[in-house]
What we know:
Layout: H1 3-7, H2 12-27, E1 34-35, E2 44-45, E3 55-63, H3 67-74, H4 80-93, E4 98-108, H5 113-130, E5 133-141, E6 151-162, E7 177-182, H6 191-201, H7 217-221, H8 229-236, E8 243-246, H9 251-255, E9 264-268, H10 277-286, H11 290-296, E10 301-307, H12 312-321, E11 326-334, E12 338-340, E13 343-344
Parallel strand pairs: 4-5, 9-12
Antiparallel strand pairs: 1-2, 3-6, 4-6, 7-10, 7-11, 8-10, 9-11, 12-13
Amino acid sequence: MSEAYKNAGVDIEAGYEAVKRMKKHVERTKRLGVMGSLGGFGGMFDLSELSYQKPVLISGTDGVGTKLKLAFSMDKHDTIGVDAVAMCVNDVLAQGAEPLFFLDYLAVGKADPVKIEQIVQGVAEGCEQSGSALVGGETAEMPGLYTADEYDIAGFSVGVAEKDEIVTGEKIEEGHLLIGLSSSGLHSNGFSLVRKVLLDDAELDLDTTYEPFERPLGEELLEPTRIYVKPVLAAVKSGKIDGMAHVTGGGFIENIPRMLPEGLSAEIDHGSWPIPPIFSFLQEYGKLKEEDMFNVFNMGIGFVLAVKEEHLTDVIGTLESHGEKAYLIGRVKKGEGVTFGGAALS
């Protein structure tokens, strides 16, 4: 071990120990197609082992944003990896792709093997939920760039779809119906506003349980992002899904139009799904306007699917049989953007 490097703030031995601790978590994510083992210079995946005829690879990358600041404050790191996976796999899912493998990038101020293991444990959990193999990653110790207690995490997902079964949204027409899948809470967006409203302005305590919650505020805020892969793929296989949107940063206003062809808009039936209490809690403390809420947060709907009216019952049945809470939340009309009960929010 280099004492000079350690004196500069980089502990190579701690890094080795972290990798050793990761291995059991990586191992449980293995799936058909994975080649090699942890420690190579690149992760390998044999696409020919799968039954795709005209495979198209679909990739996505994302991070967790300032939700990490709450993990630091709570010293709770075992769910943030789920968020990193969810943000990526739900994106590739929106085009009908089956996630195949995942890589993570973890930058830390100080290599703490126990903390790193907790983070990677969450990544592995997210990979299991999505059917992804964790085939590689990078853990970089960066003293001077991050404090000893800080880190950042990003993820990279690669999925596959048959070329003629990719869901692009181009088949969506006026009259299509919109199905919303319930979120688990805030997911991984809007946390700069969350922290300003609840921590900076209201000075609430993360370890205190406030009405109407049954657990400390910090745990409520750190609830991991829901992963929609398995139920949605089951619905996609029916061939009845014409468009999908992952409701992330920008909320309904920015994300639903991304799946719509030009000249079409989404009319949302406000009140057609239950909005989790964390959102009214935030709105009350921050005195936030409704348009702010729908522009920033998922408001209880984390994923949206567009289907023809004649397919609605079948698709909802498939989703619910896989444990999803699915709601008819609106329809596609001529126009632009998103309206709520006929009133535009901007």
